[in-house]
């Protein structure tokens, strides 16, 4: 940022004080003084109101009137200082914001420079060649994996089919041994359960 | 008003022997412990940050009108020395008349202030001492209205850490936080 007037350079780096910081400090001091002024006038107004009330109670109308006039004067002064305070505060904010903007522009510029430097490192032909190379490499890789996966899956397929056949065979033999006895014709046995089991077996076999 | 508050802090403030330095070493140790915590609690409650030995007789914990007891200056010195050795007070002058009362260590204060600054997005801005100590914005902050001497001490702590720079312009001082 150029003009840096760092006071001390101790091992842990303290924030540096710039000309702008000094200007801001001055403004803020001014603001503090105005705030103090406002507080003083406000407390004075409060007191005067009390006194005026007291005077009215005592019947000293003239003095109360005088006091109220003074109060009016103070109030207009308060208004004025309020306006000045607003100006000072706006100025401070503007200054602080301008500083932020300067910082932003500065860092944008730095970023831009860095980006340029990086771009210089990369030449277009190199990249084209690199992309070409990597495309070839990807194609080669795809071919290899196609070959490999094709071989593998065929073996797998056979294994799986064999296992499935084995399963079905075992299920069927179990089914036959589990069949219920032939029902006696007199008893009305529920015929539901064997069919259900059969259904379940069919589903499992699927 | 403060007396009732003190009795809320500790019951032994109403206990006459508490105001006499105990000869038995064990008892004295306990007595000094109690005095130290009473003083620190009182200062925290009242936000008292400095102590002047000249005003010792007016310092509320050091006397109790209800039981007609008060500390003699010798006992006060013993207590102050005890507090100093614990790091709870720091003498401001060589003659040991004025001291800072640190019911919160400067490091803790520094942390509190810096946290407040960060929470209010005021890093990198310039502030006047007045706005930090007496401004409307800091009204709810713990460091509002603390003693300026203590505040300087804490800012020194922040400077050591590289989190602040105190600078002066036209005689009035300001601080910039990082």
TrEMBL record, chain A:
Pfam families from the entry? Snf7 (PF03357)
Q: Which InterPro entries match?
A: Snf7_fam
Enumerate the residue ranges of region (Disordered): 1-21, 175-206
What domain of life does the native source organism fall in?
Eukaryota
Which GO annotations describe the biological process of this protein? late endosome to vacuole transport via multivesicular body sorting pathway; protein transport; vesicle budding from membrane
Q: Which UniProt keywords apply?
A: Endosome, Membrane, Protein transport, Transport
Pull one GO CC term from this UniProt entry. Answer: ESCRT III complex
Where does this polypeptide localize? Answer: Endosome membrane
| PANTHER family attached to this UniProt entry | CHARGED MULTIVESICULAR BODY PROTEIN (PTHR22761), CHARGED MULTIVESICULAR BODY PROTEIN 6 (PTHR22761:SF5)
The family annotation for this protein states: Belongs to the SNF7 family.
Quote the protein name from its UniProt record: Charged multivesicular body protein 6
Q: Which organism is it from?
A: Adineta ricciae (Rotifer)
Automatic annotation (TrEMBL), chain B:
- Reading the lineage from the top rank, the first entry is Eukaryota
- Sorted alphabetically, which SUPFAM superfamilies does this protein's record hold? Winged helix' DNA-binding domain (SSF46785)
Which Gene Ontology BP annotations are present? Answer: macroautophagy; protein transport to vacuole involved in ubiquitin-dependent protein catabolic process via the multivesicular body sorting pathway
Instruction: Kindly indicate whether the keyword Transport belongs to this entry.
Output: yes
Species assigned in the record: Adineta ricciae
Q: Which GO terms describe its molecular function?
A: protein homodimerization activity; structural molecule activity
Q: Which family does it belong to?
A: Belongs to the VPS25 family.
Where, subcellularly, is it found? Cytoplasm
The answer to keyword Transport applying to this record is: yes
Under Pfam families, the record lists: ESCRT-II (PF05871)
Which keywords fit this entry according to its UniProt record?
Cytoplasm, Protein transport, Transport
- Name listed for the protein in its UniProt record: Vacuolar protein-sorting-associated protein 25
Q: Which InterPro entries match?
A: ESCRT-II_cplx_Vps25-sub, ESCRT-II_cplx_Vps25-sub_N, WH-like_DNA-bd_sf, WH_DNA-bd_sf
One Gene Ontology term, aspect cellular component: ESCRT II complex
